[in-house]
Amino acid sequence: VAGCKVAHIKTIPTVDAGELSFFEANNDIPFDIKRIYYISKVPEGVRRGFHAHKELKQLLFCPYGRIQLILENELGREEIELSDPSIAVMIDRPTWREMLWLQKDSVLCVAASDYYKVEDYIRNYDDFKKYLEEIR
Ligand code: T46
Fold it and tell me: Where do the structural domains in the chain lie, given as residue ranges?
């Protein structure tokens, strides 16, 4: 997905009692997790995101509901729907992202490689395109 990897999260089913998914820093994902955040209570049809990160690496997954990710970087622009708790997307290069809530109350969870740093965000699309040129 535009140079971002779709990853399978290890998932253990229990007969008639659902499933349990897990991942471990460094063992299952290639960074130390310094921060976890999640986005909830979003109405259907709402879009969030509209930014890129310079250094931050993140694993995004949707434990409940249906969320479309629109990702763009130097390798192209692609869309992926997160609707299975055992599927994640690893964003490990500067990538413009938009998230569209396809279903009310869907939850987006993110494991991030660093603390919240406002200076790591590029929130203007033209600045993002310029940044991609600069780092080429
Ligand atoms: C991303 C996508 C997938 C904090 O204070 N600490 C935090 O750790 C985060 C993530 C956000 N914030 C504050 C910054 C804003 O005042 O929470 C507010 C909402 O954040 P934002 O508008 O950036 O939310 P999204 O949904 O557009 O983007 C978020 C993440 O910020 C971003 O890193 O990749 O989810």
Answer: 5-135
Active-site pick, 35, 48, 51, 54? 51
- Domain 5-135 in CATH: superfamily? Jelly Rolls (2.60.120.10)
**8 included as an active-site residue:** no
Atom of ligand 1 nearest to the CA of 115: 8
Q: How far is the CA of 135 from the centre of ligand 1 (A)?
A: 24
49 lines ligand 1 (CB under 6 A): yes
Rg of the chain taking only CA atoms, in angstroms: 15
Per-residue pLDDT of the chain (136 residues; tens, 9 = 90+): 677 899 999 999 999 999 999 999 999 999 999 999 999 999 999 999 999 999 999 999 999 999 999 999 999 999 999 999 999 999 999 999 999 999 999 999 999 999 999 999 999 999 999 999 999 9
Rounding to the nearest 10 degrees, give the CA dihedral for residues 21, 26, 32, 33: 0
Ligand 1 within 6 A of CB of 39: yes
ipTM score over 0.90, yes or no: yes
Pairwise CA distance, residues 114 & 48, whole Å: 20
